[in-house]
Every structure is written in structure tokens, then in C-alpha cells.
Design a protein that fits this description.
4-stranded antiparallel sheet; 18% strand; single chain; CRO Repressor; 43% helix; 3 domains; alpha+beta
Length: 201
């Protein structure tokens, strides 16, 4: 109901609702003399309130800022913004710890650091400290894309086979060449370059 969000990305409102729902769900277990309906009705109301609020924040930036807060720039152009850190009650130990977590030990390498509404720190390094990419060297690279999962836990995924214009006969033939059958395969994927990866159970 809350959508595909990790617990670390929940807004304070979502987090509080989740805790209240857990408390309400425990009431009928603790007070067996209370009718179950007395707990179900508040759970349904809270669930609906959560869904309505999450939809409302999708379309209203003002409401989203009130409920979820705003990202705060903690480091700008390589300089610590102490006032922003005070507003967020974010101390230097927190900052250095999150930088180390990203493999950064020198604050001087950071161009921008943004404290997201989830509490995570997004970091953009100065250009001279970023890893070199093929684009920097003027090297063209082939298209990679995502591999298509054909077999998972011994089950053939028919819709994925259709997407790549193949059928089960082709798959069975490829697996027979490896001395396997679908039910003995843990994972089989087809890369965009046409290579079939097979991992048996």
C-alpha cells in the first residue's frame, strides 16, 4: 500500500503510521474480550489515510515538503555549510561516517554533498577525483542493456521468451546441449549479445 519504497526512504508520516498500525494490530491479541472490529476499523482508516496522503504528495510539492521535508546541501563547492548542518542537526561525525561509507576519506575531494529527505547522503566528487569513463577517453562502447531471465528456480518464464522472439523448444535445445533440463536450472539469462548464461541448481 505504501508503494515500492525501502524503510529508509519512508517519510516521518509513513513511519509513524506503520508504528501505529502495529500497535493497533496488537490490541486484539492482548485484549481478547474486545471485539475484533474495534481494531480492524482503525486499521482500515489509517491504511486509507496513508494511501490518500501518498497520492496527495505525488501531485503537491508543497505538501511533499511539509510531510517529507527537503534535501539540504551540506557541502557546496568543497566547503562545509555549517548553518545547513545546524538546521538538520547533522554533526561532523555523521558526515564523516557517511562519507567513509562511500569510500571517501578526504572532504576536500567533495564538490557537493546533499542530505536527502531519507537521511542518506548523496555525494558528487570534484571532477579530478571522479573515475575515468570511456566517454572521457572518447571510446565508444557497445550497447549492454539488461539480460532477459528465461528460467528462474526451475520455472521457464514464457513471457520473457516471447519478448526476445524465442520459444521453449529453442530453450530446451540449448539446455540439452549442456546436459540440463529446465527443472534442474537455478537461473538462465540471455544477454543482449546473444550469450546464454546458465547456472544449474
Amino acid at each position: 500500500m505504501m508503494g515500492k519504497r525501502e524503510i529508509g526512504q519512508l517519510s516521518p508520516f509513513d513511519f509513524v503510521v506503520a508504528i501505529i498500525i502495529a500497535e493497533l494490530a496488537a490490541i486484539p491479541m492482548e485484549a481478547t474480550d474486545e471485539p475484533l472490529w474495534n481494531s480492524i476499523l482503525p486499521l482500515v482508516i489509517l491504511g486509507l489515510l496513508e494511501v490518500v496522503m501518498s497520492y496527495a504528495t505525488l501531485f503537491s510539492r508543497t505538501l511533499r515538503c511539509i510531510v517529507c521535508g527537503r534535501p539540504q546541501v551540506i557541502i557546496k563547492s568543497g566547503q562545509l555549510l555549517r548553518n545547513e548542518m545546524r538546521k538538520a542537526r547533522y554533526n561532523l561525525d555523521d558526515l564523516l561516517g557517511q562519507l567513509r561509507d562511500k569510500g571517501i576519506v578526504d572532504v576536500g575531494e567533495v564538490e557537493f554533498a546533499v542530505l536527502e529527505t531519507s537521511g542518506k547522503l548523496s555525494v558528487i566528487l570534484k571532477s579530478q577525483y571522479r573515475p575515468v569513463t570511456p566517454a572521457d577517453l572518447g571510446i565508444s562502447t557497445p550497447y549492454e542493456g539488461l539480460p532477459t531471465v528465461l528460467v528462474m528456480d526451475g520455472s521457464v518464464i514464457g513471457e520473457n521468451l516471447k519478448e526476445v522472439n524465442l520459444d521453449e523448444n529453442w530453450l530446451n535445445e540449448q539446455l540439452r546441449e549442456r546436459g540440463l533440463e529446465p527443472k534442474k536450472v537455478l537461473l538462465a539469462t540471455l544477454g543482449t549479445d546473444g550469450r546464454l548464461f546458465v547456472n544449474e541448481k
